Amino acid sequence: MAAEAGMLELPFTCDEQLTRRMRLRFQSLQQKNGRPQDGEKLLRPNEHIYRVDFIQQHKLHFLRWNVQLDRPGKVTVTGTSQHWTPDLTHLMKRQLLEPVGIFWKKLGAKEVESNEADAQEFGERIAELAQIRKVMYFLLTFTGGLEPAQLKGSIVFEV
């Protein structure tokens, strides 16, 4: 949590169980030579499901992203409009939100960069969605050799 008064820092938490279930769905379809449902999003190996648990839902004003990458690479954060019951519903492409947050670190750089305009708009949208959700799910895509263990991320709100 953010130590400063009037701020709330909510971490991204990897939802390993949900990621595993989605990977099992993909494996099951492969084994049966099955096809995904029309519009279904299947996880690729470099994609993982994360969640943010909103301990406060109202009067949140997006301030900033705190994204730290331990090595060069890129992570794309895509919000979902999914209220998940993974045993009953699959992730559908139409439930992926725009804009996305794209964060990267170049070789030799100390700071993580981002497309600030999209990241700002995305953060503001998350603050709006928090009013109707206790949990929000995100699809994180890791590229450039980056892996989940090399990411530490959170969203900071003014309360």
What does this structure look like?
Helix content is 19%, strand content 34%. With 159 residues, it is an alpha+beta fold. A hairpin with a 7-residue loop joins strand 6 and strand 7. The two termini are 12 Å apart. The mean pLDDT is 90.
What class do helices, strands and sheet pairing give? alpha+beta
* Spatial gap, N to C terminus: 12 Å
- Average pLDDT works out at 90
Largest sheet: 6 strands, antiparallel
- How many runs of DSSP E, i.e. beta strands? 9
Instruction: Compute the CA-based radius of gyration.
Output: 16 Å
* Order of the strands making up the biggest sheet: 2-3-8-5-6-7
Low-confidence residue ranges: none
Topology:
Blueprint: E1 7-11, E2 13-14, H1 16-31, E3 47-53, E4 61-69, E5 73-79, E6 101-105, E7 113-114, H2 116-130, E8 135-143, E9 151-158
Antiparallel strand pairs: 1-9, 2-3, 3-8, 4-9, 5-6, 5-8, 6-7
Keywords:
3-stranded antiparallel sheet; 9 strands
Task: Please summarize what this structure is.
The chain is α+β, with helices and mostly antiparallel strands and 159 residues long. The chain is built from two helices and nine strands, in the order E-E-H-E-E-E-E-E-H-E-E.
